[in-house]
Specification:
Layout lengths: L3 E4 L2 E4 L4 E7 L9 E6 L5 E7 L6 E3 L7 E6 L4 E6 L8 E7 L12 E2 L3 E6 L1
Parallel strand pairs: 2-11
Antiparallel strand pairs: 1-3, 3-8, 4-5, 4-9, 5-6, 7-8, 9-10, 9-11
Length: about 120
């Protein structure tokens, strides 16, 4: 199993940047693909970005392509989400998640963090 803890959320003006971090417990971090999801008030939780075990392959939701970058540091057991050119519609609770070991099916994430709030003011 892996436990995930997000940090780095906050309030930022439109056009600004923010970097989220996701710290994972244990010594098996490199065997988990990692993903970020977000949930805005009154909406479903949506996929934002995913990264494979090695970090060489990434995927993004169309709404964030070119603005957000997902990365990971397996030596530090941490995944990141760099968010640039933020828009008010990016306001949401952001969750770090992981599917079962060795899987890259972001749609079946089994492990979730507690979430971190990102608020973008206009």
């Amino acid at each position: 199993q892996v436990q995930l803890v997000e940090s780095g959320g906050g309030l930022v003006q439109a056009g600004g940047s923010l970097t989220l971090s996701c710290a994972a417990s244990g010594r098996t971090f490199s065997t988990y693909a990692m993903a970020w999801f977000r949930q805005a008030p009154g909406k479903e939780r949506d996929f934002v970005a995913g990264i494979n075990l090695s970090g060489r392959s990434t995927s993004y939701a169309d709404s964030v392509k070119g603005r957000f970058t997902i990365s990971r540091d397996n030596a530090k057991n941490t995944a990141y989400l760099q968010m640039n050119s933020l828009k008010p519609e990016d306001t949401a609770v952001y969750y770090c998640a992981a599917p079962k070991r060795y899987s890259i099916d972001y749609g079946t994430c089994e492990y979730w963090g507690q979430g971190t709030q990102v608020t973008v003011s206009s």
